[in-house]
Each structure stands twice: as structure tokens, then as C-alpha cells.
Amino acid sequence: MAEDERLESHDSGMVLVAIPGRLTATLERTPADQAWCRLRGDVDWAAVEALRPALEEVIDSGVSPLVVDLRAVEFFDSSGLNLLLTLRTRAESAGLALELASLSPAVTRVFEITGAGAIFVIREPARPNDSQGRT
User: Which residue range or ranges hold the STAS domain (predicted)?
Assistant: First the structure.
């Protein structure tokens, strides 16, 4: 499916993925040419299957950084972590950056267990206009 067929207007950006009752992913481009993807809901195997091509397409567009806002993620498992690791590798291979913002408790738990937080840039607090707050 082409990008313009998948994307539709949404109050806080363009909807990349919508799985009713489970997950919504929206994308907002900032004036500083960053892309902020906000995930809301469950990031499990089924969601990852829908998210992967949409987020790969954003990375392939050359925008940098792509910031993934995880504050509204209610469930996050190893498939979600694998997606973020794969996207990070894809971005770095293209000379681009993938950053994370505002990890929810579900995401924080997986990152604490695996130590994955050590390899990502994590922004706090998560605001598209925030040029500070990197940790």
C-alpha cells in the first residue's frame, strides 16, 4: 500500500497504523524536519507486523531523527523491542537517527530487564518542539 493510501488526517498528525481497540500510530513532522511517531495501545506481534513497514517507510524517506514516543504504550513485549532494535539498525545504516521518548511503565520494564535502554537515545519529556531534554 502506498504511503498516501495509508496515511489519513488525525488531530495530532497523520495516522500511520490503526488497529481498532489495540493500537494507533500517528506521525507528525516538525518545523525542524524531525518526525515524531506516537504509539498508543499495545505493541505486540500483531501490531509490529503493521508497524514495521510504516516505520521503515518513514526511515527510508530520510527524515532524521525519527523519534518514537512511547508514553501511551500499555503493553510491550519482545516483538516490540525487536522492532525498535531493527529500526535503529536500519536508521544507523542510512546515517540517520532513531530516538525514543517518554517510555511508559510497560516499555520501561522490558528495557530494565534487557538493558536495551543503554543503546538508545531517550528524550524526556517528550515534546516535538523540545530541543533539550535528551538523556
Answer: 38-115
CB neighbourhood size of 123 (10 A): 22
The b-or-e profile of 52-86 (16+ CB within 10 A means b, else e) is bebbebbbeeebbbbbbbbbebeebeebbbebbee
In terms of phi and psi (left: phi > 0; alpha: psi -120 to 50; beta: otherwise), the region of 13 is left
pLDDT per position as a tens digit, 51-100 = 999 999 999 999 999 999 999 999 999 999 999 999 999 999 999 999 99
Domains along the sequence of the chain with CATH: 3-123 (3.30.750.24)
State the pTM of this model.
0.84
